[in-house]
Amino acid sequence: MKRVLIVDDHPLVRKGFAQLIGDEPDLEVCGEAADEADALQLVAASAPDLVIIDLSLAGGSGINLIERIKAQHSDVRMLVASMHDEALFAERVLAAGALGYLNKQEAPDNIVRAIHRVLDGKVYLSGELTDRLLDGLTGTARVPGQSPMQRLSNRELEVFELIGRGMTTGKIADHLQLSIKTIETHRENIKKKLQLASGQELTRRAMHWVMERD
């Protein structure tokens, strides 16, 4: 019996995943968490074999959580289930320490298969992204260089999303437990990378990006 911890800030998503996992004879849900802090406590307390993680959490970052679990519990497998753009985030979560990326729209049909693959120590990605990564490795990729969004660091991308969700610089600093000056630096770097002339343009671009994904 393999133990699965679910980390998602939407109760209905957690419930849905728990039902799908509970129907499998070799899987059981050993806990649920809505934020990064609770997730870390449960990983230590319940010793899961696998953690399912959303990228957007009520308190903290999914990528940061992956990095912390990898550093503190290297034997725990991790699978990301998120609505975010796979092309933009999948390579980031793999680099952070997860073994799979599943779009939530595909989750009802593929979540159990993805869990078993990751538990076996194998990478789970969509066929489209797998082909793209293989094309890149073999030099046959037809896709041009990185998009401006892909040039953002993980932290910059996190700040960009929080801007798009209407959070002020001060609130972002509190949420990420960083100084206001650090957030302001991230804002300036984002503007340069996205070639935006003002804070207003940054806010509009971020809000549009978030609305597209929500």
3D structure, described in words:
- Keywords: DNA-binding, Phosphoprotein.
- Residues 145-209 form the HTH luxR-type domain.
- The modification 4-aspartylphosphate is found at residue 54.
- GO terms for molecular function: DNA binding.
- By secondary structure, this protein is α/β, with parallel strands linked by helices.
- It is 56% helix and 13% strand.
- The chain folds into two domains: 2-137, Rossmann fold, CATH 3.40.50.2300; 149-213, Winged helix-like DNA-binding domain superfamily/Winged helix DNA-binding domain (Arc Repressor Mutant, subunit A, Orthogonal Bundle), CATH 1.10.10.10.
- A five-stranded parallel β-sheet has the order 2-1-3-4-5, sandwiched between helices.
- Helix 7 crosses helix 9 (180-194), helix 7 (154-164) crosses helix 10 and helix 8 (169-176) packs across helix 9 (180-194).
- The mean pLDDT is 89.
